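Feature request disguised as a bug report, sorry. It would help if multi-protein outputs had a clear separator. Right now it looks like this:
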Amino acid sequence: MSSTKTAWPAGVSARYLTVGGATVDITRRFTLPPDPEPYATLATCTGCPDSKETSHYRTYYPSGGFLGEATEEHEPEAAEEGVREWAQAHAEKCRAMPKPEA
């Protein structure tokens, strides 16, 4: 059996192989400059239309619910963890084949 390695597309930080032979690629989404920080992590299946995007920003409310001023924190690790879990679960069941090269 021969094994060939191909380069991942630019911006892909992780890749999961689906049972159908496609991949689920994880990338980060950026806003326009001047903000250099990504605002979300995205998992996209290359075989089917499924995807999941999770914001890096979390809103925290003071104890007691929505009363008072909320704070927003940039937490990319939490977003990435959730997207990776989704990508792994999707890859384990997706039987879509990769889209052919044109």
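(second protein starts here, but nothing in the output says so)
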Amino acid sequence: MTAPVLPGIDQLQELPLVTPPFSYWPQTWGWLALLLIILLAVAAWTVRRWWRWQRDRYRREALQAFDRLALDLADPQRRLPALRALPTLLKRVAMSITGAPPAATLSGGQWQAFLAQRAAKPLPEQFAARLHTLAYAPDAEVLAIPEDEVWALFAAGRYWIEAHHVAV
């Protein structure tokens, strides 16, 4: 018996690619029109999301500042400045709202009405009065506010920053 002759690697040939039995290009203009409509809708959605993300930049920055204030509440040395900064932060957020009446001059009942009007759910009754206390009361009175009330104020403030209504 003779040994079979095996082909060498230099004799191998690449197989030709099979042509698909159909074209990938749409056969009618309707599919092309549908593709263009979908691409335009995706582009419009992307631009709108980007615009909204840019518009809410002040909200993200305010929430970062709010988180720093909440961390400062645990430190006795930084507790009073953190409590004093909450009303200022909320006023800065209110002044950043586009299309809103000037919030810098609001106080008392007008400030409470402004906050309540833009809140997604009702705020505590004396929310603005407690913010006034945090901003202007003597240090001893501010530090004497019960812990649960402080956390309730901070929770309401955070919720208002996250969910306040912005007119478009």
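Even a blank line would do. Unrelated, but nice: The radius of gyration is 32 Å.
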